[in-house]
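Whether sequence alone determines local backbone shape is best considered at the level of individual chains. When preparing material for the folding task, we compiled for one chain both its residues and its backbone structure tokens. The sequence in question and its structure tokens are set out directly beneath this paragraph.
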Amino acid sequence: MKKNEKFVITINRELGSGGRTIGEKLGVKLMVPFYDKVLIQQLKDQYHLTVEEIERLKGQKHNWLADFKRSMMVMPNYVAPQYIGTPNSIPDFLLTDDIFQTETEILKSMADDGSCVIAGRSGFYIFRDHPNHLSILIQASMQHRIDRLIRKRRISAEEAREIITKVDEMRENYVKKYTGTSRYDTRNYDLVINMDDHTEDEAVEIIMKYIH
């Protein structure tokens, strides 16, 4: 990946691995926006986006994406709220082909607009042919993930394990459905980091060294 040219970094991560936080910190380090599920959902809601609507907006001189960025304060030091689930959000297992295509076009529009870091949403597959793309997988042992969820959400170990198991299955089914591959297939990534022996800041430094 060439840091001095327009780039996109995609981070796929296991729940409880700290991957989302790593993405935020990496965006700050590189001074580029960080996008995740929350922002994509808000963008869809604000503009009532479909694939057809995105194509219509692209044909306008008015930069709708820039307006959205300003309204959401998506700046290099922006940190989005932690995603747990919102009343209007759609679980991955309920996504339709139309919704997937809409989200794909949103992500491509974001990357076309400027360098960025994107968490989740099958980014490794969507940007597989991008000329300046770095694909990263952040993972950790089950115990590490359980311990992190206990700290972050103040839940029991049993609840944490149940949530992780359900989310793992949901995300794997989603990725297989729309990409035809497994999110655990390391051939889909340029860099894989196991977080058991690393802090989030250390993971960011590993990525920065890889880029350099």
